[in-house]
Amino acid sequence: MSDATSAKRLPGKVVLIGAGPGAADLITVRGARILAQADVVLYDALVTEDMLALCPQAEKISVGKRSGQRSTAQTVINQQLVECAKRYALVVRLKGGDPMMFGRADEELRALEAEGIDVEVVPGITAALAAAASTRQPLTKRGIARSVAFFTSSTAPHHPEQTTLPDCDTLIQYMGGKEAITTAQKLLAQGRSPDLPIVVVENCSRPNERVLRLTLGGLERGLHGCSGPVLVMIGEAFAPRRN
Question: 205's torsion region: left (phi>0), alpha (psi -120 to 50) or beta?
Fold first, then answer.
């Protein structure tokens, strides 16, 4: 077998790219450049058509995962990535937000590394930072909030549900729409004030973005009418600014 033939059979490279919170122009320059060179793109359900327009040359495979809905199993996605790397030179796994923040990146990295496949990770703007910018509400505030915790109530199969929440000045709950009441009840049970400010952002950075401002006591009554991805931001840092 010639060196040239052997080289052609080597696995390609896989790049995990963070698509950002939704708006196509919030992807990083590096992410957009690699996306425009990809041979195949495996993309999440939250990736928009505008984002996919950045890679017209690529074969596109939907591996959408939405909370509470039928979606592609993670083990199947892992296998698809391995198989694509054996067929294509440049494979992109396009993930909403940042791949390393609640993005199931660990499973995918393990599967690719086990096969000796070259992997790169390109960070993206995670929803919490985009929501803070969109609402003009910093996650930290001098003298009020100097610690931030990101959490989600979603758990892996056969893992116990989280019974306590992080003890931080600012709490950011990803995928928090359906868990709003439970989250509020846990925080109230931990001694948090029912007047604690809350900012809820639905469809962050998209044209249909919606922002709700309420209190912890209000959150205990639940969130109604939310159909898109929801981020719940909790803490004194989110009190309205006074001139």
Answer: left
State yes or no: pLDDT of 233 exceeds 50: yes
Instruction: Confirm if 187 and 165 have CB atoms less than 8 A apart.
Output: yes
State pLDDT tens for residues 7-28. 455 789 999 999 999 999 999 9
- Residues designated as active site: 44, 65
Q: Which of 241, 14, 26, 25 is nearest to 129 (CA)?
A: 26
Distance CA 16, CA 31 (A): 9
For the chain, domain boundaries: 13-122, 127-238
Sign of CA dihedral 132, 133, 135, 138: positive
Q: Does domain 13-122 have CATH number 3.90.550.10?
A: no
Cβ(94)–Cβ(47) below 8 Å: yes
pLDDT at 236: 97
90 vs 4 pLDDT, higher one = 90
From 49, 59, 20, 14, select the one nearest 34 (Cα to Cα). 14
Confidence (pTM): 0.88
Contact (Cβ atoms closer than 8 angstroms) between residue 215 and residue 194:
yes
Q: Is 114's pLDDT higher than 80?
A: yes
Return the residue matching tokens 């044209």: 207
Query: Which residue stretches of 147-179 are H helix?
Result: none
User: Does residue 67 carry a pLDDT above 60?
Assistant: no
The CATH T-level fold of domain 127-238 is 3.30.950
Who's near 25: CB < 8 A, 6+ residues apart? none
